[in-house]
Specification:
The structure holds two protein chains of two kinds.
Chain A lengths: L1 E10 L2 E7 L1 H6 L5 E5 L7 E9 L4 E7 L3 H6 L7 E2 L1 E6 L10 E7 L3 H13 L3 E8 L8 H7 L2 E6 L6 E2 L3 H9 L6 E5 L2 H11 L6 E4 L15 E4 L2 E4 H4 L2 E3 L5 H8 L3 H15 L3
Parallel strand pairs in A: 8-9, 8-12, 9-10, 10-11, 12-13
Antiparallel strand pairs in A: 1-2, 1-6, 2-5, 3-4, 3-7, 4-5, 13-16, 14-15
Helix pairs in contact in A: 3-4, 5-6
Chain B lengths: L15 H4 L12 H8 L9 H4 L7 H9 L3 H11 L3 H7 L21 H15 L18 E5 L3 H12 L3 E5 L8 H4 L8 H13 L3 E3 L10 H6 L4 E4 L5 E2 L12 E3 H10 L17 E5 L3 H12 L4 E5 L11 H9 L3 E3 L2 E8 L5 E14 L5 E5 L5 E4 L2 E4 L3 E2 L33 E3 L2 H4 L4 H19 L2
Parallel strand pairs in B: 1-2, 1-4, 2-3, 4-16, 6-14, 7-8, 7-14, 8-9
Antiparallel strand pairs in B: 5-15, 10-11, 11-12, 11-13
Classes of the chains: A alpha/beta, B alpha/beta.
Chain lengths: 278, 467
């Protein structure tokens, strides 16, 4: 069992758990993930490692409520425990000194991008960050992003905070400004990562995305997470999750993310009835 | 001597129609009377060919004799002395090519049903002997003070761990998944190998003093060199062949196309057949094509049927005689109504606008010249393309070793197929203090051959540790 040491509600539907997992904390690196299972009947889902405390022996997980598992997870409090936590999985983000890096985070993507931005900054890069969400009350970790960024641009779809619009607009302006951008890292919903990649492609700026397909074991055993990158089938769990955004077959990713849409609805309905919620 | 009885006692089984709709075990097992009748057919040969045919060297005539005489605790003791997982082996070993193939009666009639008797003895123990009174195979030995890390809790790892623990070594198994058992849990379906039996035998191994660390991915959480540097005197790698192979044809990433590993893991390990009571879903295909001709293909097809498919096809590029699946499993599948499309191979899969698979375009094949392995090579009949309408495809072409361990272990030699190179007789790799056995060395093979390799390696590790 893996005990939840601390819970924080970052925004109404995005929560943070600090979970005791000393061995995982010792090895975790930016860009890696864990697979968790809440209890005996639970499914296995991947969650990116948002932070770790090697001395304290914990990893920080940030998740958004999207279905049965994450809604059940959101009912847990500090002191509760989850049955399984496996990791650190996936290839760590390649960290090197490139020059100027733009980190683009969409929604819950602010969590996984934080350790990457921090590591890139430590490697001597100059970081410009763009943080976007639908609305002001869905923005979190602005301070954290600011801590490693020379500049931080915040966008909201409805204009309730920062500039009104989506993250690709300031990204495009930066690329057009003539400033030399050496690398873009974009993490968020698949559609946001796709459009960031589309934005950078004409400028020839290398763009790393962290793909989030359905996973099961997370160790290369099942192949449900297969993605097509540069025309080659790769397993996101062991070959990724980071890939070159210009090479990703986005339509395939979108389609494969929807495999269990009907079952997810059914499962969520049953769970809502059973737990007497909403 | 009594007259030779050349016919074996038939195995009671669930009716094919009924069992196609449930996940309960197909073979129901002998009664005590049936088991004793079958055991009494054994003629107690002086030259024990059956024992030679067993990869772990079970003293078969001794346990059949004890069973015949009604001394069940003795039968259990003899069996478990060499085999820590008899309930599993009795169900999934290909006895027909091993102990039963070398049985003296096989020359004249049906060999002794050794597998069924093994299963009976294991099941008898589970039902009748409380854990505390189970015979320990040998008097407990003094601790050697040496520690061994076993990577993977499948058949090879469990066997190596059990043998090493019996010899007095401190053993820890590292398992990547959330339960121990490896392919016995995620791969082989409930109706062929009930998970309760696997867990009973895993618990037996734990009762020998073996520690089992779940959720531990060696190569990620900890490396082999770190284990060797942190108090482990030796390491045994039994990580299996875990990476699914695909055909590499167009359309293979369409929704509804599974690797057998994924499909079986969802169904067996995650209990998707009980969705939504269990959270993990699996698609319930109505027209399902399974690509491949091995045991895993049969398992996948029979699971799909039990999940409610109307039509299930086995698509295999060679003919029935070349099928690597056990005869018994092919027969079971046929009885249940699985349709065999032989000498057939997919050219591509076609999908609809939502990216869901709707049909498999296949070639007819014919058998050409023999390959190096002596099997006739399947050749495409040009212009023979035809399509089969399907809404689910399960690709069961085999697996290759997972590179997670090898790629993080300097000094370990791997073959071009990704398998770890080890001496056959001892399981020793070229890396100091590291042994390996099972599918990680041989590529996908059988449960019992993995157990045999675990046994050989355990003996060699013991020799090394005692210096």
């Amino acid at each position: 069992m893996y005990k939840i040491l601390l819970r924080e509600d970052l925004v109404p539907n995005i929560h943070l758990f600090k979970v005791a997992a000393p061995a995982v904390a010792r090895k975790a690196q930016a860009g890696q993930f864990v697979v968790i299972r809440i209890d005996e009947r639970g499914e296995r889902i991947p969650l990116t490692i948002a932070d770790w405390d090697r001395e304290g022996g914990s990893v920080t997980l940030v998740f958004m409520e999207v279905g049965t598992t994450t809604a059940r997870l959101a009912l847990l409090k500090a002191g509760d425990a989850i049955t399984d936590l496996v990791g650190p999985l996936g290839v760590p983000t390649h960290i090197e000194k490139s020059g100027t890096v733009v980190c683009v985070a969409g929604g819950v993507g602010a969590a996984p991008i934080s350790p990457i931005g921090r590591a890139l900054k430590s490697a001597g890069n100059r970081i410009i960050s763009i943080l976007g969400a639908r609305s002001k009350d869905l923005i979190f970790w602005e301070d954290r992003l600011r801590s490693f960024s020379e500049r931080l641009i915040v966008t909201t779809d409805d204009g309730t905070y920062g500039r009104k619009g989506v993250v690709t607009e300031p990204l495009k302006e930066l690329l057009e400004s003539g400033e030399k951008i050496d690398l873009v890292v974009a993490i968020g919903p698949a559609v946001m990562m796709k459009f960031c990649s589309r934005t950078t492609e004409p400028f020839g700026v290398r763009t790393i995305v962290s793909l989030n397909p359905i996973m099961l074991d997370g160790t290369g055993m099942c192949g449900v997470c297969r993605v097509s990158v540069g025309g080659v089938t790769r397993f996101a769990c062991v070959d990724g999750p980071d890939f070159d955004g210009h090479q990703v077959d986005w339509d395939l990713l979108f389609a494969r993310q929807r495999i269990y849409l009907d079952e997810e609805r059914r499962s969520f309905e049953q769970w809502r009835c059973q737990c007497g919620a909403g | 001597m009594a007259k030779l009885n050349l016919n074996r006692v038939p195995m009671p089984r669930q009716d094919p129609k009924a069992r196609g709709k449930n996940f309960n075990e197909v073979a129901l097992g002998y009664s005590l009377e049936q088991a004793q009748e079958e055991a009494s057919r054994c003629i107690q040969c002086v030259k024990r060919k059956c024992v030679e045919g067993c990869p772990v060297g079970v003293d078969i005539p001794d346990f059949t004799k004890a069973l015949r005489d009604g001394d069940m605790p003795e039968a259990v003791r003899v069996l478990k002395n060499k085999n820590s997982l008899p309930g599993i082996c009795g169900r999934v070993c290909p006895q027909e090519t091993q102990c039963e193939a070398t049985c003296s009666l096989a020359k004249k009639g049906a060999p002794i049903a050794i597998g069924r008797l093994e299963r009976f003895v294991a099941d008898w123990e589970r039902a009748n002997m409380p854990k505390a009174s189970s015979p320990s195979p040998k008097p407990p030995v003094k601790s050697s003070g040496k520690r061994v890390a076993v990577v993977g809790s499948g058949p090879a790892g469990l066997t190596a761990a059990a043998d090493l623990a019996k010899l007095g070594h401190g053993v820890t198994i590292f398992e990547a998944l959330h339960v121990a058992g490896g392919v016995l849990m995620y791969g082989i379906p409930e109706f062929r190998l009930p998970k309760e039996i696997v867990q009973t035998e895993v618990n037996y191994v734990a009762s020998l003093g073996v520690k089992i660390e779940l959720d531990s991915v060696v190569g990620k959480l900890v490396t082999i060199d770190e284990l060797l540097g942190n108090g482990y005197h030796a390491v045994f790698l039994g990580t299996g062949a875990g990476l699914p192979m695909f055909l590499g044809v167009p359309g293979e990433n369409l929704n509804g196309i599974y690797s057998a590993n994924e499909f079986l893991t969802r169904v067996n390990l995650m209990k998707a057949y009980q969705f939504p009571d269990y959270d993990t879903p699996v698609k319930l295909g109505k027209r399902v094509a399974v690509i491949g001709g091995g045991n895993v293909a049969m398992d996948s097809a029979r699971c799909a049927l039990r999940l409610g498919a109307d039509e299930v096809y086995i698509i295999y590029r060679r003919s029935e005689v070349e099928m690597p699946a056990r005869r018994e499993e092919v027969e079971n599948a046929k009885e249940e109504g699985i349709q065999f499309k032989l000498l057939t191979n997919p050219k591509q899969f076609l999908g609809n606008e939502q990216n869901w698979v709707v049909s498999a375009e296949c070639y007819e094949m014919e058998l050409g010249e023999s390959d190096e392995g002596g099997r006739r090579r399947p050749v495409v009949k040009e212009g023979s393309e035809f399509t089969i309408d399907v809404d689910e495809v399960i690709v069961a072409l085999g697996t290759t070793p997972n590179p997670l361990v090898a790629s993080t272990t300097p000094g370990l030699e791997t073959s071009s197929r990704g398998t770890v190179v080890a001496y056959e007789a001892t399981g020793k790799t070229v890396k100091d203090r590291v042994w390996a056995g099972g599918d990680i060395v041989t590529g996908a093979a059988t449960v019992i051959s993995a157990m045999g390799a675990g046994k050989l390696a355990a003996a060699d590790i013991d020799k090394f540790l005692r210096g």
